[in-house]
Task: inverse folding
């Protein structure tokens, strides 16, 4: 898994690429929680994630809960088909805020 | 369909998270090789990956020197997965999916396995100890 972090007019965008699995999810968790400590609005771009497992989903859930407690905006954007199918398995597609594209997410987060 | 029984894949690997990508790749190829659709292959990959995680995290408690043996068989219209470990016998009653309404980070793996496979059962503990999990996916 690799990641990129960028600032888009005050909105932090974290983009993950590759597999978010038992090996890489601790790093994904650390990155997300670290970003949430430094921004009021976080978008997680999952367009290039090829596989996510329950540990990767757990990292997203923990970040979502942290953001909610701290009153911060947290959303997923451009979710790849493989990630969306796993979110549906856990019915979390109804829990997370999900935008079809990064542009949509930025427009709503601003 | 011809009622055959064929071993598709047998892997022996250590209880280390960095081996799971390789395992997923092999399982996907094995499933597709016997005619599974991409969706069915994905389901089997998810189940094997999550079951291996349970072994690594819970059965072996994160120890990296445990041994895991995975065998996948094609029997009639079923893909049958056997996952063997040599850890302390699992208390099967404690292995259950959590309620999805209970929004918390962990505990989803067992739920995923139950969702994507048609049968999941712990076999009687082998004579030389450990655990043997059997999972079935019907592909007809």
Result:
């Amino acid at each position: 898994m690799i990641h990129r972090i960028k600032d888009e007019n005050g909105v932090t965008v974290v983009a993950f690429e590759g597999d978010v699995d038992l090996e890489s999810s601790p790093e994904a968790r650390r990155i997300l929680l670290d970003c949430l400590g430094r921004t009021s609005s976080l978008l997680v771009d999952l367009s290039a994630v090829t596989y996510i497992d329950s540990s990767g989903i757990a990292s997203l859930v923990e970040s979502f809960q942290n953001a909610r407690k701290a009153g911060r905006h947290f959303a997923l954007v451009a979710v790849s088909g493989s990630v969306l199918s796993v979110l549906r398995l856990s019915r979390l597609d109804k829990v997370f805020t999900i935008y079809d594209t990064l542009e949509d997410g930025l427009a709503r987060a601003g | 369909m011809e009622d055959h029984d064929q071993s598709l894949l047998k892997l022996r690997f250590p209880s280390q998270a960095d081996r799971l990508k390789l395992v997923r790749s092999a399982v996907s190829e094995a499933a597709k090789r016997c005619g599974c659709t991409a969706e069915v292959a994905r389901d089997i990959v998810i189940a094997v990956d999550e079951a291996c995680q349970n072994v690594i995290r819970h059965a072996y408690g994160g120890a990296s020197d445990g041994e895991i043996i995975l065998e996948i068989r094609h029997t009639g219209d079923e893909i049958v997965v056997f996952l063997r470990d040599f850890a302390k016998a699992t208390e099967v009653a404690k292995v259950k999916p959590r309620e999805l309404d209970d929004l918390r980070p962990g505990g989803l793996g067992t739920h995923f396995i139950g969702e994507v496979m048609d049968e999941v059962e712990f076999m009687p503990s082998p004579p030389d100890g450990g655990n043997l999990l059997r999972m079935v996916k019907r592909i007809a």
Notes: The mean pLDDT of chain A is 96. The CA atoms of residues 64 and 74 of chain A lie 6 Å apart. The interface with chain B takes residues 19, 21-23, 51, 53-55, 57-59, 61-62, 65, 82, 85-86, 89-91, 95 of chain A (CB under 8 Å). The two ends of chain A are 28 Å apart (CA to CA).
